[in-house]
Each structure stands twice: as C-alpha cells, then as structure tokens.
Sequence to fold (610 residues):
Amino acid sequence: MEGDNHARFQRSQADFDALFRAHYAEIVRYLAVRLGSRDDAADVAAEVFVAAWRGVPRLRYRGRPVLAWLYRVAANMASDRLSERMRQPVPVEVVSGPPVADVADALADRDALTRALARLPADQQLAVHLRLVEGYSFAEVGRLMGKSAGACQMLVLRAGRQLREALEREGIRVSS
Amino acid sequence: MSRADEREAARLLAAVLDGAEPADADLAATARVLRDAAAVARFDLSEADVEHALERARPVPGAPPSRRRLGVAGAVLAAAVVLAAAILLVLPFTSGPVDVDVQARALAALGGRGQVLGVSEVVRPGPGAGFPVSVRTGWVDPAGGRQRWTQTVGGTVVTETLVDHGRVTRYDPASGTAVIAASCAALASGCAESVDPIAFYRRALLAAGPLRTHAHTERGRRVYRVTLPVERLADSTRIVQVATLDAATFRPLRIEWRQLGADGRARTFATIAVRSVLPIDAADLSPGTLDLELPPGTPTTQLAAPGQPVHLVGMRRVTLAEARTLVPHPWWLGSRFRGSRASEITVLRYTDGTAVRIRYGRITVWTYSRVVPPPLLGARVPEKTIPLGGGVARFYGTRGGGLVGERTIPGGTVAVSTPENAAAFTALTVVRPL
Fold:
C-alpha cells in the first residue's frame, strides 16, 4: 500500500503540467500574501513547481498529499525571498506635507488588513489561507500542514486575535 | 485563559467559520476579521494566466530531475547546460539546413564565469515609436548582478544608469537630479528603458528551451536569426526578442524587441544594433567602473520599494494658497491652459507617498515624488524620450489609453496626462512651479 502511494506520488509529481494546472493559482494566492506582491508571487510560484519537478527522486512519501509538499516548498522560497529583501537597503524618504483626511475609509481598512495579514507568523498565515481563502476543512488543513485539526484551529484563533489587535492599533474598530 | 479554554475557544471559532451561530460578540468579531482578511487575499487567475505561466515554467523536455538541491539560479543554469549538451550531442545527427549549436555558441560568446561584458549599442525606434536614436555604452556584470551604462542622444548624455540587483539609479546630468527605485517596476516609465538589451538577451538565452534558428546571408555576411521566447520585464511587460547573430563569432549584431500587447499581438518597439560586445575578466576592470557616483548634493527622489502595493488611502481638496505650502511643491500650467481654468487641486495620499493633482478640463497635471500615482502607470514601454528644457521628457501610453508626458524636477516628477499628444508636449514645455 505504502509502495503504491509512493509510486502514485512520484507519478503525480512527474506530471508537471497537471500539477501546475491544478495548484498554481492557489500557490500564487498564498505567496501573494506572504510576499505582498502578486507579480513576485507569480514568479516564485513558477519556481516552486520547477523545484517540485526536479525534487522527485529525493522525495519520500509520508502520507501527505503532493499539495502539502508544494506548500512547504512555497513557504521556504517565500522565506528566502523575504530574507533577500531584508538584505537590500530600503529606500527611506520622509514624505512631508499637511495632514490629509482619510475619506476613503474602506480603502484604508483594506490596506491595513493586507498589512496585518502579511505580518502574521508563517504558520498562522498558512492556516488562514488554507481554511478561509481556499476553503479546506480543518481536517484537510491539518493533513496539509502535518498538524492535528485542533492545532490548526488554534493557529486560526491566534491569527484572528492578532489581526484584530493590529487593526485596533491603527484605530480601526472591528465589530461583529 | 487556560490552555483548555483556549482550545475550546478555537473549536468554537472553527464552528462559527463552518457556519454555526457565534456564541458571543467577541467570537463574532474575530470570525468577521478573518473573513475580511480572506476576502482581501482571495483573487482568481484566468485560465490564460495559468497557461502562460505554465508555458514559461515548463521544464526542458528530457532533462532528468536532479538529485541535488538546486537554487533557482542553479536550476536555470543546469537547464541551460543540459539543453546545450542535448543540442551538441543529439542534433548533429539530425538533418537540416541550419547549424544547431547556435544557442550554446551564442551563450559562450557572451563570456564565461568571472567575466563582464563591455557593450556598445545603438537603440533605434520601431515604426511609429517616434523616440530618437540613442547610443548606450557600458558594462554588464552577469554574476554580480550589476549593469552600468551611459545613454546619449545626438552626442548629449541624457542618462547615466546603474542597475544593482534590480535596483535602479538613474541620473539626469542635464537637470542634475537622480531617481532611485528598488525596482524598475517602480519607475513610471517602466522597465524597458532600465534594462540593458545585452543583459536581457543573455537572460533569455539562458532560460530558453530549444530555439528555432534560421541561416541567412545579409550583405554578404552569414548570419543566424534566433527568435527567443517571451520574457517578462519586472513590470510584466512582455517582450519577444529576435536576434541576428554573426555566424562566425556568434555574437549578436542586432536585437529586435517586439512588445506583446494584451491582445497577444506583437509590435516592434525598438531595434538594437550591437556595435560591440567584449567579454573581459572582472579582475581586469578598473575599480569604480560598475559604480555610479552622484555629484554631492544631487537632489534624489526615491521611489517606493516594489512588492508594496500602492493604494489610495486618503484625498483632500485644497485651495490655491494651501497648495503653495505643500512639499514637494506642486507644479502647474498657470491659472489657464488651452482655455481651461485650473480647478480641483487635490492632495492624494497613497501608501508610501503623496501626489498633487491639478485639473485643466481633460488635462491633468500631477506632481509626485516617491510613489507613482496608479492612474499614471504606463503601458510600461516609453513611446518617446527627448531632451527638453535642460532635462529629459518621457512619453508613454497609459493602461486607460491616454498619453502621459513626464519630466524629472527637483525633488520629484511632474507629469501631464492628456488625451492628445500635442497638448502633452506643449504642457511639458510650459509647466512650472506653482
């Protein structure tokens, strides 16, 4: 049984096109939050699939579906890309001028939410992405993350609290 | 809260997210913020987007998966090596009118490890593009990720450019100002004028799968013509390169850039006549050759780093008197321009920067420093670059179909958006500080 699964796993990985078509979009969505840019996400996502295809011989089936491995590669590549950015000097400029009233509250809230989401710890980001963006059940999220469903529920709870705190720090009240 | 209570709260939240009624307002608020966050992060990719990405990412057929962990650069290099080996070993046994090791030889002609390229090229506009012929001379260091060149128009230096791992510093000696952007994607005129054609050509050669090559004779000289696959610039502009190579040296003689529009049609944007490509050992290069030292006190504008989406977060109408107090100081066209009065002076606050917008009927003047206002983001390929008023004016089409002319000013950029070409040019010649 284990051998069959391993063989199926390898075949699935090797079928690059099918793998790409099935999961590229969700990997891009995940990376877009982590990297804060859809263009960067699209570039890195393509690299994730190439790495997956190249990595076939050294994979060992551990009872988790291909998608779990794709997410792990994506998370590692996102961390590498973010570290790379941290090493580059960030341009700093003081933008002066009179205070400007925020009349576009919805836009401001959305922007604050995007920033708060990007600042969540990586495991919380992934749990939120899998459960709420992609709509997997907590049992499936658990399988993909290699954790129990309860542990994933805990990650989502903590993510929700951190998001609320981040918004409240920016003066945005969150109500039910 | 005890660990058991935490677990219970997490379970209840999970139930709410699954559709159950929230037990209290706190839980409901947490569920709400999570759903809002998910809505922000959710977007769709079209089938065409996925197929296009697949086409670019698909591994070279026949290349065996590696057992070693490869970095991205290593993977690309390995793919090129495998490809070159396949071409050299297999294709000589097939029949065909064209030598088939062109791609590998073309790469080899651009130097090896530890070498930099001295380049000189003449950039000519494509039909209808309209910008003047310019000459670029400089250096490309593929391993170091640096490019440094000087661009002249009619013998006058119009731009000194340094690209360091994607970060662009552009110095305009006529106005004595500089722009620094963490990526060419942050520049209003996009990446096309911030990428050296030889560096871009080399990158495409490395990344390409097997290429179709045609042999020709041009003016008695034997050449190969190679069409490289679509390459995306950092700002997503899609470029197809058609390179003509000397059959003896395998160095590029001419590279035609064809820009792919949203409709998939290609139009020739520029033709680059390569005057020389000289690989030399990096160790032999004089110190500072690949640097750009700005004169002391150069007014420098820094554009927002890429990867930080620019959103409008606030806006406010101001009076003329208030506008005069703003920093950076707004520029305008006077109280009237082409029969329209200056109206609607608005300060727009974006994430990472502000802009001032002044309307004259259908013509709008923008002054900005750090962030390019999204309505000005161009089709990402400048259609015209000309010396103007001691500086350089750049013109480009917007995504909405209009035309924008921009010029660098101390502390920022002034741009005029208009539906008419003539008005943009005239406006840029008369625009002045408010």
About this structure: Chain B has eight helices and 25 strands.
